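Technical note accompanying the year-one report. For the benefit of new consortium partners, we illustrate the data format agreed upon in the data management plan: each record pairs a sequence with a structure-token string. No post-processing was applied to the example shown here.
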Amino acid sequence: MAKDAITIFHNPACGTSRNVLAALRERGVEPNVVEYLKVGWTRPQLQDLLNAMNARPRDILRTRGTPAEALGITAESSDDKILAAMVAEPILVERPIVVTPKGTALCRPAEKLQALL
């Protein structure tokens, strides 16, 4: 697989994200690592990822350990409201999201990575 053929949207503080990154490297793949908490998200970027996953914003919404409740964001919030909150507060996006030539997925649990390789 080409060196830049895989991208992981990664949070180094997350054990699952670290495990997925380690699994990629164990396979000899050095992915493009995007630390989304540092660089943030754009709405078009999130929409592209969601389209690739055939998912909705609530499918990748992280509420545990985030300001979601304080912001009034729940799984019942509108897609528009959730996306706006994710752009404003990148921690609201569950991790890790992995993009490969075979597809895009939220790799939580880490075993979901196998289908993408």
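Partners are asked to follow this layout when depositing records. The two ends are 9 Å apart (CA to CA).
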